[in-house]
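User:
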Amino acid sequence: MSFFAAIFSCLQKFAEYEGRATRKEYWSWLIAATLVSYLSGYAGAALSLHAGSMAGLERTSISMATGFVLFFPGLAVTVRRLHDVGKSGWWVLIILIPLLGALYLSHLQLKKGMIGPNLYGPDPNEATRKKRAALDLDAIERHQDGLKAFSREELDLLMEKKRAMTQARAATRVTRTSPPKPMGKTSGGFGRRGAGAASGFAGLQTSRQPARR
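Assistant: Predicted structure:
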């Protein structure tokens, strides 16, 4: 999922508190929301220079409208991100504890999501993990993440494919490195076939000589 795809997904799911969200989806939204908040603040400040007595009201209106638009998608993706690490969405209320609450919530949002389905839904990274493991079959043996993302049948198929690829590589390596088959002992530079022809020719010459009395 790209940066803009993650933002679009959060906007689409602005009222969806079920399911799970990846770290990339959450942090992409947080970065975009922060940028939009700063831009709206600058826009309000610029308008206040030309608004006269209504400057404070216009600036406050812009800030409130921006906060209202960003609040619900942000809350929804935060809850889904908590689901991804196996926590209830109510853990979002820990932010009400000064300083420590915000730090712990940030720690939860930085944690890697649970592998495979959990109580809150399927693994949002399952398709990506399968694709990476399928592209690099060795990852199935090296990483536990690659193993957990597959069912037993899928693992059997991938391992069979890996065995076939290994056998094909081994056969190719043997073909390239094996020496050529020997042609036998040479006789006058002819080899086996040449030696047989030479001996036959000698026998023919002997038979043509007249017998001595």
